[in-house]
Amino acid sequence: GRTLEGRMAIGPDSRVEAGRIWQDMRNQNLRFTTLIDRIKENPPKSDSRVNKLIRSLKVPADETDHILIHAVRTRRSINVTAGQSDEHVAAGLVELLEEDTFVIVPLYSPGRELGVLIADNFVTREPITEELISALESFASQASLAIEHSRLYMAMEAKIQELEDMGHELEKNKDLLVEAERFSALGHMAAQLAHNIRNPITSIGGTARLLARKNRDPEQARFLSMIIREADRVEETLQDLCSFVDREESTMETIPLYPLIRKTLALFYNTLRKKKISHRLNLPEPGPVLRLDPHRFRRMLVHLIRNAIEAMVEGGELTITVSHDTGQVILSIRDTGHGIPDHIANQAADPFLTTRMAGAGMGLALVRRIAEEHDATLELKKSDQGGTEALLKFSDCALHQ
After folding, report:
1. pLDDT for the residue 281
2. 48, 85 in Cβ contact below 8 A?
3. How far, in Å, are 367, 374, 379 from residue 301 at the CA level?
4. Rounded to the nearest 10 degrees, what angle do helices 257-266 and 294-311 cross at?
5. Closest Cα partner for 396 from 377, 378, 370, 368?
């Protein structure tokens, strides 16, 4: 779409060679299909003179006044005789082709322009008649169809390969989804237990301490001391619930960021479809390379993407954007849910906070901890487009390709 480039030329390098070829064709009564079969078996040499000439041809697509671009844009054949035609013929083109009489026939499909064929009678020097142009246009039509079918086939093969890779990836990472659901369930359970138990236990422990200070009976003091000690143990257990995720040692590797994002998002494709949520990836090339623990990093992405999906009860759009410049990489995960209030955004990683907008605080506490392990910061804010935006900002660990 940006440049018209010479790809292949078929023809002799000199009239002497041409005479020998034409003589062989007459002696052997060769048909056109036979010639094509021979070209398939022995493709034209890329280093032949005629191929070197055509491969040096490059015309920007925005040069609409160039005769080659004009032919392919208007989808009309142009016959050039002695360097003249209805359209302006660039002198450089005649010099490059070393021929001033030729015909340009466009290659195109219904949906796009594909290129041009340039043909001449370099050998016979005979005029290029309307009959010859019509025959070449018929050939160009079939060639265009073959090119388009080839492109569609290649695109289909690429899509099949992508689906197969996605299937393998989903199969390998089912345990990641199970683990994420386990963290989610434990997070909700921990938040509920903390809310329901911490206040009564604090009251019991405080009351027992108050009674112990006023009591003079050794037997009662022993029982009160037991109450205080066990209340402290329950409070410690509640504190442990807040940090229930194992603090395993990170295994850092230097890894491209984009494949991790795409593979993690693939885990949610069925959920996105069922909840009528579209998704958009803004991943400008070249992608950044980060020093990270791939397993823990994907666990962090799973929590953030799942929270975004859960916030869009009535469908919406999930947008993942990466921006990077010297020294910093910013990963944004944005939903179009109800949005997160400012007073909640400031305490969203509190393990005891559980809201539909922020998800389970336990999960976000895990996200924040993993982010810190990667020298990154987590920021939650209300998006300007509505919904919530989670920003992960990486600094010193960012390595650019």
Report:
1. 92
2. no
3. 8, 13, 14
4. 50
5. 377
**Tokens, residue 61:** 């697509």
Q: DSSP alpha helices (H): ranges in 75-129? A: 91-97
DSSP annotation of 291 = E
Contacts of 158-165 with CB under 8 Å at 24 or more apart are none
Which tokens belong to 250? 């990170």
Enter the pTM of the model.
0.44
CA 120 – CA 246 distance, rounded (Å)? 75
pLDDT computed for residue 130 by the predictor: 92
Across 329-362, b (16+ Cβ under 10 Å) vs e yields bbbbbbbbbbbbeeebbeebbbbbbbeebbbbbb
Nearest CA to 311 out of 351, 266, 363 is that of: 363
pLDDT per residue as tens digits for the range 226-276: 888 888 777 766 665 555 544 556 688 888 999 999 988 888 888 888 889
Rounded CA separation 274/291 (Å): 35
Q: Specify whether the CB–CB gap between 299 and 370 falls below 8 A.
A: yes
CA distances for 27 relative to 20, 21, 22, 30, 31, angstroms: 11, 10, 9, 8, 12
Radius of gyration of the chain (CA): 35
Burial of residue 93, with CB atoms counted within 10 A of its CB: 0-12 exposed, 13-18 middle, 19 or more buried: buried
d(CA 155, CA 164): 14
Q: Residues in the chain with pLDDT < 50?
A: 245-246, 349-361, 398, 400-401
DSSP 42: S
Do the beta carbons of residue 89 and residue 36 sit within 8 Å?
A: no
Omega cis (within 30) before 12 = no
Q: Rounded CA gap, 308 and 238, in Å? A: 28
